[in-house]
Design brief:
This protein has two domains: about 5-165 and about 300-335, Response regulator (Rossmann fold, 3-Layer(aba) Sandwich), CATH 3.40.50; about 165-300, Response regulator (Rossmann fold), CATH 3.40.50.2300. Helix 1 packs across helix 2. It is α/β, with parallel strands linked by helices. It has helices at about 5-10, 15-25, 30-45, 70-75, 75-90, 105-115, 130-140, 165-180, 195-210, 230-240, 255-265, 300-315, and strands spanning about 60-65, 95-100, 120-125, 150, 160-165, 185-190, 220-225, 250, 275-280, 295-300, 330-335, 335-340.
Length: about 350
């Protein structure tokens, strides 16, 4: 059955015109509405090639891999990556199809479906582990013989091109900024949902402490919180209610965690940044919506999608360019930037 914009609108309880604006990436709807529409469209199996049935464009598929789901669904990261993909794809005459891949459902059926009628895949692999990639190949991914680019994760085990942000550099940059502000140490607001990126950010925090001369014998203050906003708030509040005394500065695994922990600190009477300074990671829209506005590490998210699309186009047009000895596999690492706002202060005793 052909899914239409009206079907999506009916499911979401919004107008068909709003759905059309969201599907076509036109102004007039909020980021939140666009994400909601794209998610429902993918869930219902809407094919974006339906928007122009006369188009002679080739198709590529943007696959959003979901394992736990909290990390990807809590932010607009995946839709900002899509913006970068679509911007380049349009210029290269590709249609972009969008599909969610659920690790809890049947793998072989999903793999056959995502590889059907497309010239290549871009997989948002934020929640993917090496064992998931192994499982995908065991269930037939390699049989389809189409190029694949991973975004927001990397592998050395398979001949797959990868585009990632430099998480170690970003976390080190944010932690060093806090130390330069005079804070004697920096704590770590650590996600309980672990992914490769978060592990890299933890390494960045530890690297900055070492480089600043903080003894490795001195324990890092770690507060474990969920990646889901409300649960992160509750986790932080529970830690404070149990008698936890925060250090004067923290680096958070992402902006959602940072914003939730700021809210919990303020609930307990702490002033941010006067009592506690916090740096987030990603530079999502929430950074300018919280009070104080959040100092963070900016990931060039749109650029991740743009570069992935450029690499995929190269592979599609020159399939022999990927050699057997891995020498031509692309590992693109995009640097991050510190964005200074109001959640960080100089240290006062």
């Amino acid at each position: 059955m052909k899914i239409t914009a009206k079907d999506i609108a009916k499911k979401l309880g919004i107008s068909a015109s709003s759905v059309s604006l969201a599907l076509n990436d036109r102004p007039g709807v909020s980021v939140k509405t666009r994400e909601m529409v794209l998610a429902e469209a993918a869930r219902l199996g809407y094919s974006f090639k339906q928007q122009n049935s006369l188009s002679t464009n080739r198709n590529i598929r943007y696959v959003i891999f979901l394992k736990d789901g909290d990390i990807v669904k809590e932010t607009s990261f995946h839709s900002i990556v899509l913006q970068g993909i679509e911007e380049k794809a349009k210029k290269m005459n590709y249609n972009v199809l969008i599909t969610y891949f659920y690790s809890s459902e049947k793998w072989e059926e999903q793999l056959n479906a995502i590889c059907e009628d497309v010239d290549g895949l871009i997989i948002l692999a934020t929640e993917m582990e090496e064992q998931d990639l192994e499982k995908a190949y065991r269930n037939g991914l390699g049989r389809h013989n189409i190029p694949i680019v991973l975004v927001d994760n990397a592998t050395n085990a398979y001949k797959i091109d990868c585009v990632v942000a430099d998480s170690v550099q970003g976390a080190c940059l944010g932690t060093t900024y806090l130390l330069k502000k005079g804070h004697p140490d920096v704590g770590y607001l650590k996600s309980t949902n672990r992914i490769a990126n978060f592990d890299q950010r933890e390494k960045g925090v530890l690297k900055a402490r070492r480089e600043w001369g903080i003894s490795e014998v001195k324990p890092l203050q770690v507060i474990n919180v969920s990646t889901a906003s409300e649960r992160a708030f509750e986790d932080m509040l529970n830690w404070l209610n149990a008698g936890g005394k925060p250090v004067s500065a923290f680096f958070a695994d992402n902006d959602i965690i940072a914003a939730a922990c700021i809210r919990a600190l303020k609930t307990k009477g702490y002033k941010v940044p006067e009592d506690v300074s916090i740096v987030g990671y990603d530079d999502m829209p929430i950074c300018t919506m919280v009070s104080p506005t959040l100092t963070t590490i900016r990931v060039m998210i749109t650029q991740l999608g743009e570069v992935a699309m450029m690499i995929l186009n190269k592979r599609i047009n020159n399939p022999e360019s990927l050699t057997d000895d891995f020498s031509d596999v692309c590992r693109v690492t995009i640097p991050t930037r510190l964005i200074k706002r109001d959640s960080v202060n100089d240290y006062y005793k």
